[in-house]
Design a protein that fits this description.
The radius of gyration is 18 Å and the shape is globular. The model has no long low-confidence stretch (mean pLDDT about 85). α2 crosses α4. The longest helix is centred in the N-terminal third of the chain and has 32 residues. By secondary structure, it is mainly alpha-helical. It has 2 domains: about 80 residues, Arc Repressor Mutant, subunit A; about 45 residues. It contains 8 helices and 2 strands; from the N terminus they run ααααββαααα.
């Protein structure tokens, strides 16, 4: 494939990615609002990440590829709502790892990250299993090629591990 063809496809993929992200975000916002959960999409993502392990604001920023300054109001709001707490690090007083409170853990279970009503799930259902698996594999491969941030690779590997664990549970239970 000639270089200009790659450039044409890159433009097409960027445009389509932007549309898909915008549509998925709108759908997630609507489902959060419908559930009256009182959390923004970014707040919901922070809660979900902290449900796995404690993380400093700086680490959270690297994980999400966002500046810490962008996350401060989000974390402050989650803390004010009693969902997140800042912990003291006994070995380094400058560090304040974030963790979920019991209220935050309960909220995390209610957040509709992906469910049967999710616009992406419905759309993937229309593509079918084979095309969906191809699309997911290609996107994972592209994310790994494009990533210069080790957290992105970690996120992809974490998502793949969660997928394997979920499939294992479904195969055992069903």
């Amino acid at each position: 494939m000639a270089s200009s063809s790659f450039e044409d496809q890159a433009y097409r993929i960027k445009a389509l990615s932007a549309v898909l992200i915008k549509l998925a975000r709108r759908d997630f916002e609507k489902r959060l609002n419908d559930g009256k959960l009182g959390v923004t999409p970014l707040g919901a993502v922070v809660v979900q990440i902290l449900s796995h392990h404690q993380m400093t604001l700086s680490d959270l920023g690297h994980h999400l590829m966002l500046a810490s300054a962008t996350l401060i109001p989000v974390v402050d709001s989650l803390e004010k709502s009693g969902l997140v707490k800042r912990n003291a690090d006994p070995s380094d007083r400058r560090r304040a790892p974030l963790s979920l409170t019991p209220k935050g853990k309960r909220l995390n279970k209610k957040i509709p990250f992906v469910d049967a009503k999710d616009l992406l799930v419905v759309s993937l259902g229309k593509l079918g299993e084979e095309k969906t698996e191809q699309l997911a594999s290609l996107l994972e491969e592209m994310a790994l090629y494009m990533s210069r941030n080790p957290f992105i690779g970690d996120n992809i590997r974490m998502a793949l591990q969660e997928k394997k664990e979920k499939n294992g549970r479904e195969n055992r239970d069903g």
